[in-house]
Fold this protein.
Amino acid sequence: MNLSNHVKKIFVNLPVKDLEKSIGFFTELGFSFNPQFTDEKATCMIIEDGHIFAMLITENFFKTFTKKPISDAKKNTEVLLALQLESKEEVDKLVKNAVNAGGDIYMEPVDHGWMYQHSFADLDGHQWELFCMDEKSAPSQPDG
């Protein structure tokens, strides 16, 4: 069975310390939320309508889904969330908006010619990598 033919949506689950502040942060970046899956413990942030979502879940509620300790994303990398945008300008604008909303730049921009990337950390330290690329110009071997 080819699983990629059966997966319909992805929900990335992220623990957050303050749900209201996280909703405010991502609202300032232009994201919206599905009220059907939002309460005082969690919210469903829409990344790509219909297919890609991030569940922002309060740490206490998040703990009920795992037997492992929750990673402190400000001290340890637990995941890199990479979002492809249309242009370098969109990448830079979203990073700027993230910083203005209280986030931090954690990596300076890198321009590979065929791909441009820049990154920010949200209020809880989760790392968001934003990039645009021209796949037709990508080298056959990635930069190493």
